[in-house]
């Protein structure tokens, strides 16, 4: 009886942690990043360096070398080292900027802006997950693509961006009639090495190929 009292809170915590969104992650350089064959890891409520989902207005992998690069946008620099602490979800505001569509292809850019009064760093991909208008999880497959991640230092007001790409025509795992997938209401984004998400409104329509989104690592700007 005493053992059951000890285990029940732990089981409840696992249940809550596993229900934030559903999906999988394919890492760049894993050797199996094709849409037809993927090595995936669970993307529910783990830290975003190894898993995937942003709340607008609140609110990793890879290595780099060398010093600050020239030509970085105002408020952000790219560096291989430093002592500035990482950006936490509460330090950041998220937004989504639509890109120019192609034939059956869609593009957008996730932008994370430092709204805190201190400088902080971002490195890697973080996590992403689609949800519907009610906040229920939708299928999401995060495919992390090149280039290699670098550390981006965000001064107050500075921003970092990550490029997204997905298909707008039905593919493997999609419905053969009507929309290929349910229409998302928001994109949940977890900044690199964080666990709390930001929620950004999604107005880009369904994400085909079972919710597969190619994501580049965050870069300055």
From TrEMBL:
Domain of life of the native organism: Bacteria
Against Pfam families, the record matches this protein to: DUF4232
InterPro entries documented for this protein: DUF4232
Extract the ranges annotated as region (Disordered).
Answer: 26-103
DUF4232 domain location is 87-217
Name the residue ranges with Low complexity bias.
26-58, 70-85
The protein's UniProt keywords, in alphabetical order, are:
Signal
Give the Gly residues compositional bias ranges. Answer: 59-69
Instruction: Tell me which positions the record assigns to the signal sequence.
Output: 1-17
Respond yes or no to whether keyword Protein transport is given for this record: no
| UniProt entry tagged with the keyword DNA repair | no
What name is this protein filed under? DUF4232 domain-containing protein
The source organism is: Petropleomorpha daqingensis
